[in-house]
Amino acid sequence: MTPVGIEVDLTSGVPPYEQIRLQVLAHVSAGRLSPGDRLPTIRALATDLGVAAGTVARAFRELEQAGVVATRRRTGTVVAAGAPTTDGAVRRAAGHFVATARAAGLSDEETLDAVRGALIG
Amino acid sequence: MALALLLVLLILALVVGGVVALAITVSRRPAPAPSQAADAARRHAIGVNLVAWIAAGITAVVLSYALLDAANGRYDSRYPEPGVPVPGPLLVALSPAVIGLAYLVVHAIGERTWPRPTGAVRRAALVPRGDAAPRWLRRITWAWAGALVATLVVTGLTATDERTFSRPDPADPGDLLVIPYAGWSYGVPLIVVTALIVAATEGVLWLVARRPAVIDADPAYDAASRRLSAHRVLRGTQLLLAGSLAGVLVVTGVGVAMVDADSVGIGVAASLLGYVVAAVGVGLATVPARPAVPARPADMVDGTPVPVAGPPP
Asked: Do A27 and B121 lie within an 8 Å CB cutoff?
């Protein structure tokens, strides 16, 4: 099984906790994290990322409030059973779209602009 | 004499193991680290391992001087009360702890000062931390500790008094043949010390499992790096415990064979077992751990890319 990773850019305008939250959400939505999958502990993830434990704790807390993850006493933080995942066809279409955008040389921001444009069109 | 033999065995095992480990470390040509952070982590780990062995060696040498003083009886006058252990036995009993703790403290400091993530972009795998220690080596370490405690309980129960074992002299039935023996004066401190070493080892392994990941190498590299560190910690600890067990078995076995004609076979078997334990301990201490370098670029595991979501644009 391929491990899933996240990346936090400390120079980004987006706060680190929000970056963590969005990326965990993206992995769940894309089906790379399934219900029941265990996440690292807050302390371990904070140590690896070199950020304060409170930063990761806030991201996990908001994910828990959104029903994406659940905290259990024995197993720690796991992906919740009712976590929102994208429909398989939509996920495949999104993958195809991203591959096309990258082949065309678009940056992530330009790719998202294209999606936003389609959404408001 | 028997006390000196015990410590000499321990020191010999440590020195041989340390020299061989050093030779292996120096002579093996390490594979290239897959990233700058991985290279820094590897250099840190090698340095910590070398310093740990040196610290253990220096501690052993210092203790051997102290033991020689005790063997010469210089300390006896300070503890004249009968039944109170003189520093000699206590020193012997506490030597493994002091040597082991010197070794483990260096490893613990090394784990606490493990290179932290640097740079603006930080990465982490979204997988829970597993147990990094090689299971077989951990089991052997626990087995040495268990066997040592069991041996000390047996010698404690069979000792004539707190520190000796005696039998009537066949040549002169009115006289006794007395040998130093691992009675409760030696046994209780050694049992406590053994428990302390095992607990300290588990503590260092806990630190190994929770140190910062090597951020710009693939997760398999980081897992292998932790396994390597845990292997190094256990390698030294098991050598120490094996040395202690071997010392107790050899000293007890030789002594019993000398004074108890009915137990010559048991004594010889115990001393032979002690030598086997020492040989196995030294052998295991020289088994090189698998290097932590599957030299693949970052983001690749088994030839497939690791999905990293990346910061939101």
From this structure: no
Q: Is the pLDDT assigned to residue B285 strictly greater than 60?
A: yes
Distance in angstroms (rounded) separating the CA atoms of residues B124 and B127: 9
A7, A44, A76 member nearest B309 (Cβ): A7
Stated pTM of the model: 0.74
- Interface contact flag, B129 A107, Cβ < 8 Å: no
Residue B303, pLDDT above cutoff 50: no
- Using alpha carbons, select from A91, A5, A107, A22 the residue that is nearest to residue B298: A5
Whether residues A49 and B117 touch (CB distance < 8 A) is answered with yes
Is the pLDDT confidence value at B124 over 60?
A: yes
pLDDT at A63: 94
- Chain B residues whose C-beta sits inside 8 Å of any chain A C-beta: 116-118, 120-129, 210-213, 215, 219, 301-302, 304-313
For tokens 């392994």, name the residue: B205
Structure ipTM: 0.78
